[in-house]
Amino acid sequence: MTVPGLLVAAPRSGSGKTTVTLALMRALRRRGLRIRGMKCGPDYIDPAFHQAATGEPSFNLDSFAMAPALLDTLAASSAAAADLVLAEGSMGLFDGVRAAANRSGANSDIAARYGWPVILVIDVSGAAQSAAAVALGCRAYDPRLTIAGVILNKVASPRHRRLVEDGMAQAGLPVLGALSRDAGLVLPERHLGLVQAGETADLYARLERLADIAEAGIDLDKVVAAAGGAVPAGVGHTPLPPPGQRIAIARDEAFSFLYPHMETGWREVGAELVPFSPLADEPPPDDCDCCWLPGGYPELHAGRIAAARRFLDGTRAFAQTRPVHGECGGYMVLGQAIEDAEGVAYPMLDLLPVSTSYHRRKLHLGYRVARVTADNALGRCGATLIGHEFHYASVTSPTPTEGTSFARIADAEGTDLGFTGHRCGHVTGSFFHLIATGD
């Protein structure tokens, strides 16, 4: 498809990619363009902000976790409904894992696959002409890519901007715009990244302010003119077969981390997704044949969950006859207890023999390649699932054995990490978020 695209990336995390991306999305949407956002890499928060800014769904593209057919299916689906695809990178432009060529999970793999020019967001705080050397290094590092230009972030003054622009001119890099240091531009954060879009106060007012700033500080005509590339036709590849025909999905402030491409893929093959809210003390609807507890922030709501008797009793009854699966936060709630940040332990569903603690925090981060240890709603024994783990909770109960585990996992480089998650009857769960099957 000839619908053009752009990748908004940066040399490192914390440069302001999300701020710039949302500003561009909202400003271009004001102009009447149909914008579709995409997020490179494993991230379940930013796509919701993209959807708020554009009014359209946003999918992830992950060159490590997704087979080429799935990448093309998702990219083609977005391009077919857009005038411009605007993808946001994660971490630094070239940051990924050691893997086969074009399968590292880096933003650069996606830009190269679809020929999308790159707009570099450069945090120029603490630098002037030297910022151009960083941008020049990005342009020279990977000959597959086209760097369309740079947007300067955190500019301190008009003099500071002139000095930075002098360096960029010497390096032959177009400056497409600049944003000043402004604490009001920063979106609120918590331990897993941005506060979720649905919880961000005055979200739409914030987006309109970002659009105002983009119109004042970025040459939007040049940004649109810089777009390019093409996406091959998709083949209708499904990321993971649905675990049921009518899937009860927990959805509220405590349970929200389910990849948009997963939900869309299930619907496209005929599954029906039925939301319910544990925080509102709702049980999984009884006319469903499967229940899914996504990740989220149950550690922030452990007391309310522990007091939600209809949810607890209803889920236990549901699990007697039908599959229930929990990812990360959902897995924690399926367990025996959650210890919150203050060290208070709250009883949970007690459907799996695991207890977790957010009081004893430790970062767990990285891709996971899993082989399922027994037949269940997600696949047959030995099936390969690919996902990503990102949480601070620690397990305080014994390590699962092969007979009680959900899967045996390895990291992106193939290092064996042992057995993970649990299974008990119809109930399964693990800390990693599924992205796709390993086909």
UniProtKB/TrEMBL annotation:
Needed co-factor(s): Mg(2+)
Involved pathway(s): Cofactor biosynthesis; adenosylcobalamin biosynthesis; cob(II)yrinate a,c-diamide from precorrin-2 (aerobic route): step 9/10
GO molecular function: cobyrinic acid a,c-diamide synthase activity; hydrogenobyrinic acid a,c-diamide synthase (glutamine-hydrolysing) activity
Entry keyword annotation includes Ligase: yes
Known catalytic reactions: hydrogenobyrinate + 2 L-glutamine + 2 ATP + 2 H2O = hydrogenobyrinate a,c-diamide + 2 L-glutamate + 2 ADP + 2 phosphate + 2 H(+)
Active site (catalytic residues): C328
Top-level enzyme category: ligase
EC number(s) reported in the record: 6.3.5.9
Domain of life: Bacteria
Gene3D superfamilies, per database record: 3.40.50.880, P-loop containing nucleotide triphosphate hydrolases (3.40.50.300)
InterPro entries the UniProt entry points to: CbiA/CobB_synth (IPR004484), Class_I_gatase-like (IPR029062), CobQ/CobB/MinD/ParA_Nub-bd_dom (IPR002586), GATase_3 (IPR011698), P-loop_NTPase (IPR027417)
Entry keyword Magnesium: yes
Domain CobQ/CobB/MinD/ParA nucleotide binding residues, every copy: 7-191
Entry keyword set: ATP-binding, Cobalamin biosynthesis, Glutamine amidotransferase, Ligase, Magnesium, Nucleotide-binding
Domain CobB/CobQ-like glutamine amidotransferase span(s) in chain numbering: 246-437
Residues at the site labelled Increases nucleophilicity of active site Cys: H433
Function statement: Catalyzes the ATP-dependent amidation of the two carboxylate groups at positions a and c of hydrogenobyrinate, using either L-glutamine or ammonia as the nitrogen source.
Other noteworthy facts: The a and c carboxylates of hydrogenobyrinate are activated for nucleophilic attack via formation of a phosphorylated intermediate by ATP. CobB catalyzes first the amidation of the c-carboxylate, and then that of the a-carboxylate.
Comment, domains: Comprises of two domains. The C-terminal domain contains the binding site for glutamine and catalyzes the hydrolysis of this substrate to glutamate and ammonia. The N-terminal domain is anticipated to bind ATP and hydrogenobyrinate and catalyzes the ultimate synthesis of the diamide product. The ammonia produced via the glutaminase domain is probably translocated to the adjacent domain via a molecular tunnel, where it reacts with an activated intermediate.
Entries under HAMAP family matching the protein: CobB_CbiA
Family: Belongs to the CobB/CbiA family. Belongs to the CobB/CobQ family. CobQ subfamily.
Alphabetized PANTHER family for the sequence: COBYRINATE A,C-DIAMIDE SYNTHASE
UniProt protein name: Hydrogenobyrinate a,c-diamide synthase
Species per Swiss-Prot/TrEMBL record: Methylobacterium persicinum
